[in-house]
């Protein structure tokens, strides 16, 4: 059953803390998750209407490699949300909206994990983009694997090893009965409860991070500041090796520099308990093979070295099939055009051979007559 958003009783007003500037002026062709084009850069500019000096609110964030961004799906066209949605990767199969990452949800809030490349004053440059240009940001938080990933052990100050060992043989407490969850009356909620123009690909390139702003910022803060490096507990007490080797890509996440020592956070046996539905790893839709017509290749070649990078970005977006189920059913054999910053990419999908052919990659101001 769908419900009009205006009818919902409970709501909370979240101020926008900033705006993201990405290469994707529209939903069409925007990667569905940050990992699809993990090297693609974007920037988040903090507003100055919340803090007089918004850069103060970022002090310390430079110590982290990744952050969560909570943002508003402000370009959702539908005023109605449905309980069941059709994720593109499930090829038409319907699922409960809360079992998916669909942007069409009762509270239109997106959550993306991105890599922090550089922080300059009130601007965060990051990589990994699945938001459209000028998406408003509700909040950002540092990614802390010890808190955010069930794969990673808590550092010892937070985790009493003796307690873990003592309890390891006893069954986990039944927290449902412990807190009498079933006594909660669901039907009676608690009343008190709670363009600017897209910057071109070339301009968003990331420069080296040198940390020069640290000292300046500390002085700027006036009052006493906490030196995070010094306040870290003895690094030995943080190290705890896991029982299995980190899978590919996990290593970068699990290695941190603190007190000048590289710390490896191990994985715990509980990682076996992490479950995701089979379709996450084995979706019923294939990875597509991407072909480029001669014309598209020569257009890319004319862009020099950047052309190669742009080709890789286009390939990554297309091989994951950016079409919605609705579009997939309707536009087979007709042109699909999407934009990446100033570029228009024109292509055609062939769902029988699981291929997509790129015909042209052209700039906005260049008139294209033929295909
Ligand atoms: C599937 S959602 C995932 C977002 C986030 N990683 C999450 O899991 O909540 C990403 C898609 O949302 C759409 N999208 C991105 N930014 C949007 C915005 N500001 N308004 C509406 N739709 C947006 C694009 O089609 C993009 O491919």
From TrEMBL:
Keywords: S-adenosyl-L-methionine. Residues 14-152 form the TsaA-like domain. Residues 210-269 are annotated as: Disordered. It comes from the Eukaryota. Gene3D superfamilies: YaeB-like (3.30.2310.10). PROSITE patterns: TSAA_2 (PS51668). It holds the Pfam family TrmO_C. Residues 257-269 have a biased composition (Polar residues). PANTHER family: TRNA (ADENINE(37)-N6)-METHYLTRANSFERASE. Belongs to the tRNA methyltransferase O family. This is tRNA (Adenine(37)-N6)-methyltransferase isoform X2. It comes from Agrilus planipennis. The lineage of its organism: Eukaryota, Metazoa, Ecdysozoa, Arthropoda, Hexapoda. The gene is LOC108739460.
